[in-house]
């Protein structure tokens, strides 16, 4: 009898554990979504409101213009053209997006992270030096590779990564991302160009530099290539 009770209890625990493993919160599709008690005062949902399917048409799933090179005459020498749910409404709920990245010679897509997406990069023209850095728990290891035309590289979700054109001509790459709204946080822009600025005492301690260095960096114009 005791054995039966033990078996039933064990099965119940396993069933509950299985339920917990299969039940999870939906992944965020924006930086945050603050809950409201009165739905009438709500503005955003986790993602986008949906159009009546009967009113959808082919243009909802269409975007044009990625064949055109973008202007890379800027401080970082690169330009990212994103195709996500903000400009291609048919991507809503589908969990994918796309970007074209143009590089001038020596152009850089600065160290950044996508908080909601893994990225897979395909080089169409040129030569890129790319890499990502692992998390603190993994020792902040750096993985790098030089990519040529036709090469592919993957940047895991949430990890800081970059791409640098090491060739003498323009370079072009296309990136696929595993979110309709992957988000982008450019590290230098976020740390030194936040609005309002981060208290300099925080940054001098974090980066172990003089206050004058932090003051100088916070006064710079941090260009957004997205």
UniProtKB/TrEMBL annotation:
Query: Which compartments is it annotated to reside in?
Result: Secreted, Extracellular space, Apoplast
Cupin type-1 domain residues are 64-215
GO cellular component terms, alphabetically, are: apoplast
Task: Fetch the Gene3D superfamilies from UniProt.
Answer: Jelly Rolls
**Which InterPro entries does the annotation name?**
Cupin_1, Germin, Germin_Mn-BS, RmlC-like_jellyroll, RmlC_Cupin_sf
The entry's function note states: May play a role in plant defense. Probably has no oxalate oxidase activity even if the active site is conserved.
The protein, known as: Germin-like protein
UniProt source species: Prunus dulcis
The beginning of the lineage is:
Eukaryota, Viridiplantae, Streptophyta, Embryophyta, Tracheophyta
């Amino acid at each position: 009898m005791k054995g039966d009770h033990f078996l039933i209890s064990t099965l119940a625990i396993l069933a509950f554990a299985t339920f917990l493993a299969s039940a999870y919160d939906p992944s965020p599709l924006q930086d945050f979504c603050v809950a409201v008690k009165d739905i009438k005062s709500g503005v955003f949902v986790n993602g986008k409101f949906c159009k009546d399917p009967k009113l959808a048409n082919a243009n909802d799933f269409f975007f044009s213009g990625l064949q055109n090179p973008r202007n890379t005459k800027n401080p970082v020498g690169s330009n990212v053209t994103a195709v996500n749910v903000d400009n291609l409404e048919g991507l809503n709920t589908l969990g994918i997006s796309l970007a074209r990245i143009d590089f001038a010679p020596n152009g850089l897509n600065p160290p950044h992270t996508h908080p909601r997406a893994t990225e897979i990069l395909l080089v169409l023209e040129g030569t890129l030096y790319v890499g990502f850095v692992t998390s603190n728990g993994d020792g902040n290891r750096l993985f790098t590779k030089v990519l040529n035309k036709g090469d592919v590289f993957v940047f895991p979700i949430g990890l800081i990564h970059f791409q640098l054109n090491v060739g003498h001509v323009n370079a072009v790459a296309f990136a696929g991302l595993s979110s309709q709204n992957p988000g982008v946080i450019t590290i230098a822009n976020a740390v030194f160009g936040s609005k309002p600025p981060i208290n300099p005492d925080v940054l001098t301690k974090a980066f172990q530099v003089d206050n004058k260095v932090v003051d100088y960096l916070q006064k710079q114009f941090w260009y957004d290539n997205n």
